[in-house]
Records
---
Amino acid sequence: MPRVQGFKAIVIGISTGGVETLKALLGALPKDFPLPLIIVQHISPGSGRGMADLLDEVCDIHVKEADEQELPVGGTVYLAPADYHLMVEQDGKLGLSTDPPVNYARPSVDVLFETAAEAFGKGLVGVVLTGAGCDGSRGLKRIKAMGGIAVVQNPEDAAASSMPNNAIMAVTPDYIVASADLPRLFIKLSKSE
Amino acid sequence: MTTTDEIEEIELGLLLDGIAKVYGYDFREYAEASLKRRMIQWLSTSGFDSFGQALPHILRNPVIFEGLLRGITVNVSAMFRDPFVFKTIREQVTPYLKTYPFVKIWHAGCASGESAYSMAILLEEEGLKGRFRIYATDIDREVLSKAQQGIFPLKEMRQFTHNYQKSGGRSSFSDYYTARYDHAMLMPSLKEEIVFASHNLAGDGEFGEMQMVLCRNVLIYFKEHLKDRALNLFHSCLADGGFLCLGTKETLDGRSIAPYYQEIAPHTRIYRKRYA
Ligand SMILES: C[S@@+](CC[C@H](N)C(=O)[O-])C[C@H]1O[C@@H](n2cnc3c(N)ncnc32)[C@H](O)[C@@H]1O
């Protein structure tokens, strides 16, 4: 089943309350994980850089808040800053905006996914994890339309199931997995050429 | 074979070329991802099927162009956004500003004026009433006339009040506005200290000497070349020892004017221009 296509990046959407899931997932990835991971987590405007610092502390892989015009590299996790949309520019660099919220969210998963789909095409893995609402569904659809693949957390395994459920209704995911199996899947995908 | 996505890309490029030539607004130097999102959003509500179809109408009809312009510029803002930045201005910048007989501040890309009014409130509270002028500029004339009115949705006041308090506000935020139906009107006297004017960072020139320049969450929309253009404008009008305040995700790191500046407190993106 796994199409051999040489992935360039993994984008992840996860909502409020996903901290533990993220900690376990990122904590299980090796320091030299070859792909960049770009993440939108819904957080409240005042949260500051706390989350990136906290995750960086407990993970081998480097976790940082995304900066604008930054070129994402392997072995690094980029988190959307609170109160900004995170995007991928056509040249693969990261971009930020204070455009109005999308799906009541800023950062919004759809904004990241749709722009990343344009930039990375079939080199993209889109991942929707635990969360309430439907943010990420439209973006995941775009990722698949551009030739990338879709991974969704098994709703039964998720603390909040509506984001994964909506994603599964929007696209036929290439993988539906429990969060505990994500690190192994990521490593496998990162090795496909 | 060219795909429809590629054709859309080409049409978008032609449209931006045309707009630059006809109207003098050059959006080719804007970061693409967010610009394209907003253009597509405009297209979906415009009644046109494609940028190609819209192109001659936009180039020939200024009214249609104005509509597009409004869709392209992003005017979201908030009063005392990033309260810790305003707290730092209050505690570490105003003591210097007070040493001048009169203080001039340029607020570039002021949108509907939220942070220009925030600065006016802050400076009055710090004892500078009657001794400062804020020049608040934006490329979007429509949003400037909104700023000029100083009327904001009442439902935003809760967030603004919260921000104001966290920024070290000295009185009660409700002293600064009167509520009417679902709107809040800011105290008219605040307006007397602000001059709203149109100014395009991508085309227009500099102002007179300023003690402080604020330009927050505007440069993130610009590509490198336009970023530098704007920063050079700010640099050329800032007095030695003056302050440059950018958005919290904007930095001088790696920019040509960086050697002349020092950030006054970590992560605030408030820079002080060194004495020559
Ligand atoms: C996201 S708003 C920032 C508002 C405010 N400074 C803040 O931090 O909340 C960006 C503003 O920049 C303005 N802008 C965009 N391009 C511009 C240009 N070339 N010259 C001047 N203003 C521009 C837009 O019209 C918009 O009002």
Note: Chain A touches chain B through 22 residues (CB under 8 Å).
---
Amino acid sequence: MLELTINGGRYELELPAGASLAELLRDEVGLTGTKSACGEGHCGACTVLVGGRPTLSCITLAHRVAEEVTTIEGLRDHPMVEAFVRADAVQCGFCTPGQIVSAVALVEEMPAPSAEEIRHRMAGNICRCGTYPKIEEAIRTWRD
Amino acid sequence: MARLIRTETEVEGRFEEVWLVVEEDALEQWPAGPREVVGRPSTRADGLGRARGEVLFTADLRLPGMLQTAVLRSPHARARVRRVELSGALEAPGVRGAIGPGDCSALSEECSYEGSAVAAVCADTFEQARAAVALIAIEWEELEPLLDADTAVERGEVLDIRTSSRGELAHGLAQADAVVEATYRTHTVMHNSMETHQSICRLIGDTLEVHTSTQYIWGVRSELARRLGMAPDKVRVVCEYMGGGFGSKTNADDYTFIAAELAKRTGRPVRCALTRREENVIAGNRNATIQRLAAGALADGTLVALSGEFVNAVGDSGWNSMVEGPMEKLYDCANVATKTSAAKLNLPPMKAFRAPGFVEGTFGLECLLDELARKLDLDPLELRRRNHAERDPGDSNPFSGKNLLECYRRAEPHWERRHEVRARSTETVKRGVGLASQIWFGGGGPPSYAWLRLGSDGHATVVTAGQDVGTGTKTALAQIAAEELGIPLAHVTFAVGDSERGPYATLSAGSSTLPSMGPAVRAAAADVRDQILDLAAQRYEVELETLALAGEAIVLADGTRHPLVELVGALGNGQILGSGSRGPNPAGMQVYTFGVQVAEVAVDVETGEVTVERVAAIHDVGRVINPLGASSQIEGGIIQGIGHTLSEERLTDPSSGRILTRTLDSYRMPTIADVPEIVGELLDIPDSQLTNLGSKGLGEPPIIPVAAAIANAIRDATGADLRSLPITRSEMLAALAAARRREAQRAKEPVAG
């Protein structure tokens, strides 16, 4: 039995050993806002917060997670979401939840990151549509 | 009134003569410039749902009882299955079905590329399916693969050969004061959409329901109906949200046929989704090209000869993309000869990828032109101006609209920066500026239809069975409907993505979506507007001709305004229903998009590292509906182009033909840290000949000139000629060494004259 707090809610789950946190979220809890795009930790689409730290859920063993998990569903009213929409930092939208989770983790740590800091900290989230300039703008203007 | 016409249609540079039913396009274009809604920046209608992760992609759907599939694919580039035995898989835990060659048209014993599908297993979980696939007993007979494109052409292993010529090439070359010849090569690049290719199939009664990540629900519908022998209306294809395609998702493909067959056998919904590693093998690719080119010009820069022998390394199947297109169409040159061969190889099939052919062909042509400019000691921008084509140089037809010279004019301030940019060079970091022109289709065409319903609250819903693949289609089309109806954008809802619940709409590809669907949406809105005004004439007892609809009100001739809801509010549950369709393209005219890009680069001559520092993009795509969405398209195209130019490359093992780059760390796409300053500018001049909107597509133009502009900037910075993509550090260092050798050689030669 796995006990876990996700977005403030308590869950008790039966999961096979080896299941990833992404599988737990998407298949067991039904939180499909977290995307799985590569399944091996290369693209950042599956990023969630574990104890506030951005974490690649597709390569995180579910049974090793002890701290609270926050997914995009837990951040839906965060001003960063609105900032992404305002800046048009959403094209197909498949990578966007992961981008937003990473961006939230960044601004929680440094509310006004420089362009260099944004480019450094967001480089693990791939966007094939190329919304990067708009992502940078969203993070620069998230409190507007 | 509908009429039947015989016309030529174009998708991604492929032309077809077809019969088409078209409606007259009776609406006058709006005047140029921003309107109430159209031409003003709008955030995406579905942006919040996408950003919050609330919308459901095909990858997110969980149908009750749904099974997962794993596919046994050929690990060999060319092989024959001697024996395949599924019983081991069928006995494995959780397995509900297994199919092999003969069970499904997508499965075969003859494997002519790595990744071709042989067998498939569905089980309660994907892990179970994957474990069961490993239990399939299979014996292979490996065969010698054909992997080299030139060899394939020599042996006659070609899918197609296309030639074209005008004038007399030999005459042109003889006339020329300067001739440059060079071989250019472009490489294989992968789409790597974030959502992998996938489908979920289930049978409901005699209807096959297909949820699929696609750019073309109607194409998938007709392909399934044809190959499965079903009536098209018994195939329902749904794609509400999709996670990127870039040209690779316009067919049903093997995973859909596998899911359909397994759904039929198990009576349950079946998902078949490519893994990322499968995606990097069989999801399609921009095929490599070889381009043996020559250009000749008079001393004043007038082009008198262009020739190209092109080879498309197509793979096992696909089509001969129009890599010669820019050479044929971009410049006014009297003598042009091209030959384009499609090499059939034991490599996974190509698919359209954002301006297929033209991305590759523009790299060759536009770099060659800069080589010519250097030889003639002419300014590259001036050389392009001098050879500007007033009419289509191929068939002498007029262009429906062309403002390339205006693009060049607006590029001047960016081009002028080259002196200042070069001056910022250091001993080890050389800076330079390069430019390249762009031509592409993008006019769209019929058929496409839209329905529009307006309720008693004065809000409208547009229904059309197209798809929004992330380009902002819904938002732009909603703007058009709002503009025509004189209502706020927030009062327009858009429903797409279900072949059973809306009229035909074209595919989301070929920069054709907006120019095809937009006029249909406007026509549907105009139909509703006419009905509203007709009701208003009765209600307010005035002449119909004196009425207008604007600002959510019926406006009478004397300026009296009656709120729209006062009129339609009386409808109760009644609705006003309108329909619209896309009219024909202008007869006897060529519809193209144009543009120019100016790139600034920094080259570290010690390490070979190339950094793109700035790209200015000026494009002529007719009227701009949503400047915000358009700027995102420009940026996205340029960033993808930078990836194609500098870092992305599918690598294959040269002896076995196996794909080596299967993951997103080995296949290197741009990240946010690779993005330069991007300055996008659209002329926003409606094409007066094209539809009721004057709008063309923008999905593809911005990626087309990127590679050539970068390579030309590198030449400007260092004198090195980069004729092969991608421009890796080793490629860059080799080109620098060649440039130094050439320079040393020149220093030794006696001064001429």
Note: The mean pLDDT of chain A is 97.
